[in-house]
């Protein structure tokens, strides 16, 4: 992961997930999403998955869903053998290569994208 | 619905692509290379659903069955989770200006060095089913605002849908798939569309059926393109850089770096920036398409711009209930523009962009 950031430094910083920011500031997002946009993601736990202290994150729109999964797993300090399932709006699991901004355009509510997560495939 | 509509649905389902599968020379361990395997692949299927015969055919000629089988076209690993027809339109048709130049699609079969930074893992058919079910739910949610139609399926119906897709059985598949169709156009919340540009992950927009609240006029394909902001697609066409990238080639990655590089950036870095200036700004996709001569394909063809978008959706969508629109620039036909620079690219004789 770390070498990865080295490599990409000069061309882009896409892989760098923004550090958690207080959710109180500026939740309003433009309708148009560009790769540089930041969007608000709201993580809600279910099943046996633990809740996050901070539930809202501002993430870059051009992250892949795999980046989001990795981000959440590291926040939860999960070991590699612990399973975690992420759902949009309690409906479906996006493919890891789907882009966060595209999901946001189609599924946001009140300017945030709700991602439910569980240790079991709760809405499978 | 006209008399011919059912025929159209069936014709789209029957759309097939002739493929020649060849075993990668890297994987050959027998004295005689096996002859290629030819196959008519349904556009509306996924490779793992049709390639078990290919695997069986080649497995007697190779001892390196260490990894999952994967497929490659001109150095590009084929994403198994993209419908076969969409892969073809994106990787082959787009790069010949939209016309069929070669009668066959030549695909190389690999049994080792699975490019798991580029391709999702596909350990078994069940993984395809799980993937398919989730995309179908995503499309259903866009279309209706809920997935009640999906949840209301009985176990038998759900199995028939899957078996119909897996075995390419039109009657079985459509007997269930028709249940996902809203009763009228008015019931649609939005039309589930995916735009595919340069083999990137799909662009999705919410596209209504009617042009305006009180309108009863269905939007046309032209209207659809005009509703998509230019910003949504600008960064995906090679020659338009969205960052402060000045058009220089990204530094080549050594194999060890590539292994650790994260998927999207790996792809991003391997794209050759062409020299066209990104100066023009457009307010929507339609303007951009007209100004730059961008072409589109849906299920391999170019329906007229004045076609009803919702009608096209109902007849040309894929089994996952998305309609895929492939966009390409016919003036930029270089296939290396999305070359993935595979780890073993130096072994591929036809790969000339080895920068190392």
From TrEMBL, chain A:
The keyword Plastid does not apply. Residues 1-31 are annotated as: Disordered. GO terms for cellular component: Atg12-Atg5-Atg16 complex; autophagosome membrane; phagophore assembly site membrane. Keywords: Autophagy, Isopeptide bond, Ubl conjugation pathway. GO terms for molecular function: protein tag activity. Residues 15-30 have a biased composition (Low complexity). GO terms for biological process: autophagosome assembly; autophagosome maturation; autophagy of mitochondrion; glycophagy; phagocytosis; piecemeal microautophagy of the nucleus; pinocytosis; proteasome-mediated ubiquitin-dependent protein catabolic process. Coiled coil: none annotated. The keyword Electron transport does not apply. It comes from the Eukaryota. Residues 1-12 have a biased composition (Basic and acidic residues). Forms a conjugate with ATG5. Belongs to the ATG12 family. This is Ubiquitin-like protein ATG12.
TrEMBL record, chain B:
Residues 190-327 form the Autophagy protein ATG5 UblB domain. Gene3D superfamilies: 3.10.20.620, Autophagy protein Apg5, helix rich domain, Phosphatidylinositol 3-kinase Catalytic Subunit, Chain A, domain 1. It is a peripheral membrane protein. GO terms for biological process: aggrephagy; autophagosome assembly; cellular response to nitrogen starvation; defense response to bacterium; mitophagy; phagocytosis; piecemeal microautophagy of the nucleus; pinocytosis. Keywords: Autophagy, Isopeptide bond, Membrane, Ubl conjugation. It is found in: Preautophagosomal structure membrane. One of its GO terms (cellular component) is phagophore. Residues 126-182 form the Autophagy protein ATG5 alpha-helical bundle region domain. Transmembrane segments: none annotated. Conjugated with ATG12. This is Autophagy protein 5. It comes from Dictyostelium purpureum (Slime mold).
